[in-house]
Automatic annotation (TrEMBL), chain A:
It comes from Micromonospora deserti. This is Uncharacterized protein. It comes from the Bacteria. The chain crosses the membrane at residues 49-73, 94-119. Keywords: Membrane, Transmembrane, Transmembrane helix.
UniProtKB/TrEMBL annotation, chain B:
Keywords: Cell membrane, Copper, Electron transport, Heme, Iron, Membrane, Metal-binding, Respiratory chain, Transmembrane, Transmembrane helix, Transport. SUPFAM superfamilies: Cytochrome c oxidase subunit I-like, Cytochrome c oxidase subunit III-like. Residues 578-833 form the Heme-copper oxidase subunit III family profile domain. Pfam families: COX1. It is a multi-pass membrane protein. This is Cytochrome aa3 subunit 3. It is found in: Cell membrane. GO terms for molecular function: cytochrome-c oxidase activity; heme binding; metal ion binding.
Amino acid sequence: MRRERRDALTIAFVLLGPAAAWLVALGASYAVADASCTLRQSGRGVGLNVPVTILALNAVLAVVPVAAGWVAFRLRQRSPRGRRAGGGTRARAELARFAGVSGIGLAVIFLLGVVLLAVNPLVFWNCQ
Amino acid sequence: MSLTQGVPDTAAGQPDFDGVWRNPRGIWRSLSVVSHKPVGSRFMITAGLFFLVGGIEALLMRVQLARPENRFLDAQTYNDLFTMHGTTMMFLFVVPFIEGLATYLLPVQLGARDQPFPRFNAFNYWCYLFGGVLLYSSFAAAAVPDAGWFAYVPLSSNPYSPGPGMDFWLWGLALVELSGIGAAVEILVLTLRMRAPGMSLARMPVFAWAMLTASGLIVLAFTPLLVATSMLEFDRLLGATFFVAEHGGSPLLWQHLFWIFGHPEVYIMFLPAAGIVSQVVQVHARQRLIGYPFVVLAFVLTAVISLGLWVHHMFTTGLPPLTMSFFTAASMTIAIASGIQVLAWVATIWLGRPRFTVAMMFVVGFIVTFVAGGITGVMVASVPFDQQVHDTFFVVAHFHYVLIGGVVFPLFAALYHWLPKMIGRRLHQRPGVVVFALVFVGFHLTFFPMHLAGMWGMVRRVYTYDPDLGIGGLNLVATVGAFLLAAGVLVFVIDLVVAWRRGAPAGRDPWAGDGLEWGVPSPPPSENFSRIPVVGSRYPLWQPERDRPDRDERARGFDRAPADFRASPTTSILLAEPEAAVHLPTPTFWPLVPALGLAGTAAALIAQAYPVAVAGLVVVAVGVVGWLRRNEAERWPERSGVRVGGLPLDVHGTRAIGWWGAMATIAVLATAGGTILASYHFLQVNATVWPPAPAQRPAAALPAGLLAALVLAAAGALWLGTRAQIRRRTALAVLAVLAAAGLAAGALTVGTYAAAPPAPSRHAYDSMVLLVLVFQAALVIVALVATGLAFLRAAAGGPPGRLRLLVQVAAGYWALTAAWWALASGSLYVVLVG
Amino acid sequence: MSGAASGRGRGAARSRGRYGLASRLRSGFRGRGRRWELESIVQDSGDRSESDRLLRSLATTGATVTARSRASRLGLVLAGAALALAACGPDQSMLSPMGANASRAAGLWWLMFWIGVVVWVLVTAATLYALVRRRRDRHDPLTARRWENAPLVWGGIVLPSVVLVLLTGVSIDAMRHRDHPDASQATVVQVIGHQWWWEVRYPERDVVTANEVHVPAGRPVRLELTTADVIHSFWVPALAGKIDLVPGRSNTLSINTDRPGVYEGRCAEFCGLQHAKMRFRVVVEPESSFQDWLAAQGTSAAEPADDLAARGRQVFLSASCVYCHTIRGTAAVGSVGPDLTHLASRDTLAAGIMPNTKGHLGGWIVDPQQVKPGARMPSSDLPPDDLQALLAYLGSLA
């Protein structure tokens, strides 16, 4: 029971962690950029360095896919392929391999996604 | 009020496994059926009829556009038709059809005997049906909605859409959305908790993965739309100003909320289609799907990224370029997910030995069409290009490539693949080829020219166009194509009817399929599996040697059993180890009652007959109470401590599916609450004055008291819910205190309102405060109902696990209410900006 | 890329719309500074298809539709179909860009189009080959092949990532170069959307007109767009991408072109019953003629030249017209409908849907609901004599 719970958390982190990080990265980058522009237009500017804020946000959030990718990589290594073991163990190995492969892919692609978001304010930054 | 009556006859008489699962027949009595197959079929048939209606609307529009300056339809009729066409296809056809397919199919694929909450399932169907009928009754009232399926404000608000047209749209949609969210909750709980023993996450059919991700999306995407439509109805009915620029509102708020729903909606439709294709391709190419983990990864990727694309429908609204560039980047990222899937399908065909069945043809037609639609999708993600083609026929072409090519073609494949299972008879190959040819050719004739028409300057939603644009020829071709496409659909319907009546018997497994559904008779019996399968492989019918039906005694306990009530096992999320048995309910009319009440309320509100609306709400309340009482009254197997296959029935916490259902509901409510707070801050940032004057902020004492009452209630319920043993007297006392705290919270909500009644028509701030208080009141009511149910359970005595579960559920609602009110108070009373 | 579109040697003249050119020819190019148009037409008609097109558009124009023009309209449809096959569009499309913004969009289109074609052909070819290829190996659906996931990783993740990152870069680069003239350097034009027409204002010169945006060639123009009612969208495919007119917001759009001509535009966001008939035109003219036009538009309405027109003015001022329309220099100061001070100088009526001829104007005044059902203009029941006088007066408001 306890092991299953730990595995469930690991797999949830591997499958959903990078996704959540990307979603937060997008939402926060959008909110910072859009709100600061809107406020500036109505003369209520907040003293925020927008590019630096967005860059810092994304840099912090990029840690999540990196970590999840590492966990996924370990999961995949833990599961030698085609191991002829009894039912429960085989199912567990299958699951670890599946989550490992999916997790690595998700981590890589969402990391790319976060990087793609982060470079935008470096390329240009204005409100018009 | 006692909860001990209503023990079914079968308990007294002889145990009869088939009798327990038998569903009532006859037109009237069959309305009480709640089993997943009849309900799923009803969803599909109703949605299919709406598809035909939406198609006829499309044909009428195509006739009008066949030549420039045509006078076949007038402007008003055309606007009615395109509004209803879009609404019908999106809300009344694709999503309900897919949910119906999943409702029917998933339990059979996953090895379950029914959906987790069959009565709720029936309720969802009724809501959908009544919502659709309500929407279409606008024709009878000669007030057809005409502001487009996207209903942009201010065009859809009172000054520019007077009369009940948009109210029909809003209320009809509200019912359909409710049904959609409900069906999604069913599917979430089913796929996570009710798979056959041994079917670990890594062995789940791809279609189940697709429905799991799509259902998560429905919860996260339909809910903001429900909030947005409520806000628009506030504007229309109460004169609120959420979207009125002069009063601190913002028309862009509607667009944000609508597309936060609208973009995921595309993937809510596409993900199941991708799941269908993945399953069909492996059976018809006789090759297991290549790259299963990659396809699942692509589903997760698609689902999540689709939540972050909404702004790319708003590239022309004048947003700052940096804002838009984020969404260009996001839109490009989602294309990677499509790339993975397409390559997986092609690789599967490549390595397999494909059969040229009709299903396979639709799969191939899907791939070539969807790829084209995906490419134009990448194009419109580019801001400068999108600013040219946005709102032109290029976009019309693009999304029909994605929605017909990407969704309807796979649905045809699904029908050719699974209909033999559902109706027990084969469809004919030769008419099927004709259907495919007509649909495929007709589709491309219709929609390919639209790309050109759009780039040459034909904007969307025009009832006619100027001959000088030089697009008459293109439109004529499109109209001809549309009729070919329609002819294909007609041939399909005829073939379906003929096959249904006298097609050749399909047998269990006409395609030599891989999944559990092919191991049961066609059509499956009411209980699906008289023995619960135990799965040892991702392809149970292809690797039968890995199944161990005899090695799991817990599954063996379900062999034609139990014979005196309906039951199915529940299993753990990751490895699908059997954990408990779930008692599944039997037919009843009760779900129909609240659905009727809701429909009556909606109709009364459209007609502005407020006393009738109140009566409708009373019917809803009566229905819910009757339904819950009936549920509790039937808990006799739990109370008697029966175990099935050694698995307990009377469970609580994460082992009970009721807990998961409640958590899913809490997720829905939390999404709604989050949407409201996000809207609040959006308006706050956009308005020049917020709040209009400091004095209009309600005094802080009442909300603070409210928070204290809520925290007390939540803490009390959590304390009680986590206790190993609940003594009845303690439970009654604690629940009574809880109810008192809840009532106090309700009174304080009303008090907060009364202390400084917001005037929603004065300023969007007031509208927002009103909405926050209304939502808070709704949360308190939900939590009070949950508490009351637990109290009655405790009062009546009975299964201890059930009581704990009900207390835990109540605790969840109170915790949510307290957390949300803490956040909302933070928003209302802590000034963030300006 | 963009060369493929603009490389077909299209001159500015062919962007003449159906009414503009014809009505001008009929009226003998009345007005000032229009000679350049005629010249550019003459220059361009060396191109044979171009002159054909001119003739056709002349034939299809006019207050009455003759059988002959109906036949040539069919010809136009067929020509359109032929053009579709040749994959080149009509003049007023985004694929024949005449302005800086539209050029960038067209350039992006051709880049993405060719990449898309390559991708689509590859996938389709692979799918079809996969279906029909000969299989040698005896085959088990469950066999795991060692490298079976490689195509997914390389073809499904790596390659698309590279292409998409590239496209994102190009697209964002194009956004970066989008020009944003500030108000101090550019000509400012205010455009206000109404159901279903466009109000156009030149704040520097107090000029108000409708459904026609005149801008100088070769000088940046800053359009400031707002709406009086619902959301509209301002789109001139040949010049620039569209921009919405949103209540409570003021959006800007830059037009920057050095090619004189008349460019068709239309409302692109669904705005109610007559969304389809909410058109306008952008007239790009050389600096001098633009200044002349501006000066002329800034004056008050011409005094009636004869008795008939004088009576027409009387009719106008005593009828319900004054509640909605302004004619500067008279007592009519309504603000609901278009400013009519220089009505006769405009090429079209009722938001670009018909030529500004006496016949059309008469028909419009008598029964606008027939022409454009739902339009906010009520029908009138003027006696024939009054109507004639009114038409004479309105026709004199050059």
